[in-house]
Structure formats: C-alpha cells, structure tokens
Amino acid sequence: MPGQLFLTSEAFLPISPCCLAVANINAGSTTTSICRSLCRRFQQAASGLGVSPDKAKELSQLCGVSTTDEVGDGNVVVHVTMNKHEEEGE
C-alpha cells in the first residue's frame, strides 16, 4: 500500500506514490456500489495494518484531492466519494 508509511507512522507528509493512489481511487470511484466495496476493503486492511484514523482523515487534503465531505472513521477518500455519490442520488 503506497500510503502505508504515512498512515501508520510519524511521517509528516504522504509520499508521491501515495497521493497518486489516492487520486486514482477517487477518480475510479464512479458509483456508490464501487465506493462501498472499496470502503469495506479499506476498513479491513486498515484494521490489520494499524492505520491512524487521524492521519487517514488528513490524507485527501494533504494530497490535494478535492472532496465534498470530511473523511470519517479512517476511510480515506473512498468514504468521501461514497458520500458524494449518495448526495447526488446514485
């Protein structure tokens, strides 16, 4: 996972491959179904890797990925994108 070092340590900023992955995930999250599936997978991976929810909440902003809502529960960009799709009525 490209963002693992940032999400699980004291690294101050995410590295470039991490931000590229965040942008790609956000761009590929085109339906509510996709977003929910990705969200579940990220939640499972995060719990096993010791991801810091606070750092996950910062990730999209630090990577410059535009989102419409705050990230909650450490679900990174997928959660934000899912909220966006639900607001759009998808």
TrEMBL record:
InterPro entries: Bifun_inhib/LTP/seed_sf. Gene3D superfamilies: Plant lipid-transfer and hydrophobic proteins. This is Uncharacterized protein. It comes from the Eukaryota.
